[in-house]
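worker-3 :: picked Reverse transcriptase domain-containing protein
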Amino acid sequence: FSHGSERSAGVITLKNKFNGNVMHSEMDSEGHFVLMIINIDGTFLLLANVYGYNSKSGNDFLLDALETRILFWLSKYPNLLLLVGGDFNTAPDPSLDRWPPSSNNSLSCCLNTFMQKFHLIDIWRVKNPKARLFTWSNKSNSSKSRIDFWLISDCLNRNIVITSIMPTPLTDHKAVSLQVFFNANAAQTCRNCYWKLNNSLLKHEKVIEDILSLIKNFWDKAQISHLYCQNWELFKFEAAKYLREYGSSAAKQRKKEEINVITRISALTQIPPENLSEEDKTELALQQSKLNDIYKLKAEGAFVRSRRRWLEEGEQHSSYFFKLEKSRSKFSSVRRLNIDDPRKVSTYCSNFYKDLYKSEFDESAALNFMDQIPDVRTVKEDQMSFCDRPISISEVLHAIRRLKLNKSPGTDGLTSEFYITFADQLAPFLLNVYIESLINQSLPPTLSQGLLTLIPKPKKDPTYIDNWRPICLLNNDYKILAQIFAKRLKAVLNDIIDETQSGFMANRHISNNIRLVLDLIDYADLCEDDSFILFVDFCKAFDTIEHGFIFQALDKFGLGSYFQNAIKTMYKNANCSIKLQAGTSPRFNLNRGIRQGCPISPYLFLICAQLLSDYIKRSPLKGITIADKEIFISQLADDTTLFLKSASQVQMAINTINAFSLASGLHLNIGKCELLALRNCSSLSIAGIPVKESVNYLGIIINKNQSTRCSLNFTQILDKTQRKLNAWLQRDLSIKGRVLLTKAEGLSRLTYAALSLDVNKETLADIDRILYNFIWKNRIHYIKRSVLSNSYQHGGVNFLDFSSLNNVFKINWIKQFFRNPTSIWNFIPNYIFSNIGGLNFLLLCNYNIDKIPLKLSNFHKQMLLSWSLIYKHNFSPHRYYIWNNRDILYKHKSVFLSNWFDNGIHSVAQLINPVGGLLSYSEFMNTYGLPVPPKEYAIVFDAIPAGVLMLFRDHVVNDLTPLPLDPTVTYVGQVCFPAIKRKNNREIRTLFQKDRTCVPTVVAYWNNLYQNLEWEKIWTLPSKFLLNNKVKEISFKIIHRFYPTRSFLVRYTVIPRYF
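worker-3 :: tokens ->
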């Protein structure tokens, strides 16, 4: 858009369900044009939105400016088609397009020249050569003109263009519509293929009463006939029919009234002005007034709803707020696949997915595969009984109430809100439907149906169907059943799924998988072999897993017959159609694959993926041996990473996976598999798989160079964050709203990478600068950053700087490390730190990171730095350790001797004699009985500074009872590593920010003017009233003394001096 002045000009181009790509856009600074270069299905257009001047000279200037820019874009895109439309304030033909007619065509001369130069035609006039319709009139209708029109390239086929002039409310102009069907078949009406319940109807008392009556009617019939599935299907049909009719009746009546008014206005405006009677003029004014009232009513309703939501949710952490700026540039349904005919697109899509979901299950291969892994972990007897118990009414109710709100329903159109509204009445009905279905081993027809919505994969060509991801919309009654069994299966997964699998498992995180790969690379010197990491890619893994394999896997892991029967029932007769632009495709059966959108699908996939893990570990494959441990595999759902000893293992790994493929249906996509060598590798590929220097793994760029890894990952994120925040600057948000956005649109985008990577100082500074500048709209900073970081009770706005947040992430890494130091995710750093007493001891030491006698990765250095910022090493005789001490150095490095440490010699106090001096060599040997060579003794004792000895003379330690080497018992440790597992990020962040927050300078100013001010009450008073954030912001600015008042306003002539 381009703003005009307060009184005139201003143009905006809005997109609604837009299927093209906006390649470029530009506008003038005066609010007179917006240009967009658009690509629609390979056709490039220049779309110009124009607002003309009221003078000939102004319009001449405008057309000259347009000519310059159009010529520029034509040089870039020679085949551009032009669509130029708007209010030109000029009539193309004064004799036809003005009333009273005029012969003076001086104003339109430049326009005609412009049209001739670019071969443009006035498409409405071409299609209506003699018609006299006007798009503007004055209040008395004594003066009219057609000054709003579309100019299009004359090479466009006029048969694919539809244009019309339509009555418009609340303006003295009419709308001029233009429809261009670049695809000849696109003119077919695109319709929404399935009905969806309007949830607002559930607030109508009559609807509630009538639905309750329907439920009771069909429930009674079902109890009498014992045909619960049949009556459930009939109930859904009647309920949907009733809700459709109820919702459409009022809307139809309103629409009918609107159409009648528009039709009458159109009829009156087509009468030649000279033939309009006074009665016609009166009626025209009356009908226009009616149209205005109709749209005013619509606008007022929308305004009330919007204002209510803004007061309730505006500038809050809600989906409503963030959808204000959410871009939906692509309508998520396939409309073109290098095929123009929608019917052919529909058939092609249907056939593609029919073939994709066609079973190729080899039962004998699957059984043979299972026999090769005889000793998998199975569920315990009590867990099997838990999964096998009959469905209860409480489970149904719980599943209903856990349905997600505001989600698209399946083909029946009944939303989650519908089920939640009538949960108590529907639960008994559904329970009996499920029981009957499990007995019959078949679901009712609508519970087996799904609707595939195809989501385009980012940065992929959407004209290839492989580049769309199918998401299955399922009916909520099916999802309730699936949720019940998903909850049961999830409860037992921890006992059968290895820790090497992080996907869909509670208390496991994707960052573990990334850190393991990075630790292997950063500590590759610990690996003696020329090892490789193989990043495996399966072709459409979720869509090709065989149902027969899933059922065998359930049996393999010891799930009972009732549970297995339930899963088989849910997958029997499963079928889908595809949502397309022109309707839906023909239905097809799902004979393999799990539906992405089904609550139990992720967990079923995990047990299949676990069999691959078991098979790999029992195969002859040799993994990477590092830190006294051999590792083979890590997984995140289907993202599988293999760790191979040498290049000779690559082909063997492929063969091993192929055996799994024959049984499961999951096949390698060799073209997308990648190898990363831990050491230098001269080969470009091994076994047909490319050897890369850098790979994109789980969204993180993995690179061997630690110094460039940070910039490779954060540069793009920072650029995107900057663009997103800049887009929000166009809105008039309060400071509180902008602070919220620094977290939601800023920090949230950066968190994922920071969990796994170190972030260098320059990047941290750049991030905080971007966030802080955004709060102040890239203008003057009126308040210190340290004050903004204060809580609301202390005059701040809870601003969160990324530096503190990054430190919190590193402390959280320590927390998860302490939970299981020997796990596959932590064994490498555990091995590293064990060389200097272990991480738990190191955190208690007065270390200097650069003096530690180890080669540490940048990530672990940053972790230690974060801890040192909050754990202060004040001198204490009992806690002044010899080892890893920045003051006790040998050859510029901290000292650590494992034999001394293992024998309990930890602190300097243990080396001091009763009179405050150092133990002699003989005294040391007699005291500890440790066979220490004199050289070792000299290294340690000579490294102790004289200043330290002076401190110990003043603090003689008589009790040498060793303190526990456990940082969790310290004050900081108790905050960071609580005994009870819980989220404590806020408490950790407080430790980092307590030295940075400060008292606002205005406190002293106001205290000098007024006595006994209760500052906490002053800061929090506005939040106690139902005020929006903009009003609260005024109070905030006044107290902080940067709200513009008299002297400021006079200086900039905003108000006169006598004010």
